[in-house]
Amino acid sequence: MKNIKLFLLYGITIVAIIAVIIWDQYMQEWLALQPDGGEQVMRTDLFVIYPVITTLVVLSVYHLFKKKSP
Questions:
Q1: Domain that holds residue 9
Q2: Which residue has the higher pLDDT, 70 or 43?
């Protein structure tokens, strides 16, 4: 059961990172189409994206390097 949880954690982390990269590319294209290059646009999505990605990466790295109990 523990292996399934770790597999899901790693899988969700990888999928989330890929999704953020794709999302950011689309947002950059959208910003380029806005007047003044999107200078007046405030990206509030980053207030959600960065903490979620940071938490997932930290949890994944923690479980990778955690010492296994005997």
A1: 2-65
A2: 43
